[in-house]
DNA sequence: CTAAGTGCTATAGCCGCTATAGGAGCAAGT
DNA sequence: ACTTGCTCCTATAGCGGCTATAGCACTTAG
């Protein structure tokens, strides 16, 4: 079974080459073996690991959370309570962001629909930005 | 009318002191006069300007967009088309983010409800992260 | 044998702040 | 007058999570 180059691993995992090196530097990815000419040589498990990381990143988990999740993967017999906690916290964060963004969306829409598209002088967009009291939602 | 200190301006605008200095450095806020002892002295308009910036930041506009919006405020007779464009672009960005986050929310919820809260070995959270194919939504 | 491609390291930059260090000045209490 | 504590000043570094650049070594295809 031939060793995989960083380029091949990048290709199959969907993680870019410099990002892989970055993950190695911050200790998220195991330091691989090196060839005679000092190139990184990966086994196929590196691809799995990177896919795991990529998927977690796509779901918005930060590096520290991913570090913990990977650590847990190494202890399959342990309770997965902590994984649940991490995922729940992430869910709460996502829900909070959605709520905030939805409020912003409303305000942006109102700004835009109220604007009569004339002059800056009486542009509703500019007015609303200048005067927070013009917002209906006091959320922010 | 006495000049306002950076602390007073920060207080009334809701923008922190170091942030005000930062905005000055990047040319977003006009350079104020200085007292004999080299302290910044603001007029009341600085508070309005900072409130504008703060509100725009809260709505997710980036610094460059705000720079343009402020520039427009200085030309009240111009058409406000550009302000509309900036706000529309921001609305599109926000809508896109909401959509993505909603997809993530769904996946996180599925991860959590499928987990039987036992061992890491068969933890649905970990499994899902490891294998993207377990996602129903292929959005990401 | 050459040229393109891939790999390597080290370092700087991105955004929008925030924190830290090290100093000067001002206001109020003793 | 003195001290204490607050605000102010500058300059610089750090945050997260990469991404870009420079300058070199090596490999592979034609």
Outline the structure in words.
The structure is a homodimer of 140-residue chains. The first copy, chain A, is an all-alpha fold and 140 residues long. Chain A folds into 2 domains: 1-78, Multidrug-efflux Transporter Regulator, Chain: A, Domain 2, CATH 1.10.1660.10; 81-140. Helices cover 59% and strands 3% of the residues of chain A. Chain A is built from 6 helices and 2 strands, in the order H-H-E-E-H-H-H-H. Chain A has helices at residues 6-13, 17-25, 45-58, 63-73, 81-114, 124-130, and strands at 33-34, 40-41. Chain A has a two-stranded antiparallel sheet with strand order 1-2. In chain A, a hairpin with a 5-residue loop joins strand 1 (33-34) and strand 2 (40-41). Chain A is elongated, with a radius of gyration of 24 Å. The mean pLDDT of chain A is 89. At the A-B interface, helix 3, helix 4, helix 5 and helix 6 of A face helix 3, helix 4, helix 5 and helix 6 of B. The first copy, chain A, binds a DNA duplex (30 and 30 nucleotides) through helix 2. Chains A, B: InterPro entries: DNA-bd_dom_put_sf (IPR009061), MerR-type_HTH_dom (IPR000551), MerR_fam (IPR047057). Chains A, B: Residues 3-72 form the HTH merR-type domain. Chains A, B: Keywords: DNA-binding, Transcription, Transcription regulation.
């Amino acid at each position: 079974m031939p060793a995989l180059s960083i380029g091949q691993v990048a290709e199959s995992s969907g993680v870019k080459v410099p990002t892989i090196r970055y993950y190695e530097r911050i200790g998220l990815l195991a330091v691989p073996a090196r060839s005679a000419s000092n190139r990184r040589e990966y086994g196929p498990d590196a691809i799995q690991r990177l896919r795991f990381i990529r998927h977690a990143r796509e779901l918005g988990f930060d590096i520290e959370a991913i570090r913990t999740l990977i650590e847990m993967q190494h202890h399959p017999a342990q309770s997965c309570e902590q994984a649940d906690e991490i995922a729940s916290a992430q869910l709460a964060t996502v829900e909070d962001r959605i709520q905030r963004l939805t409020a912003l969306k409303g305000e942006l829409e109102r700004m835009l629909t109220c604007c009569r598209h004339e002059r800056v002088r009486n542009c509703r967009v500019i007015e609303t930005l200048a005067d927070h009291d013009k917002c209906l939602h006091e959320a922010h």
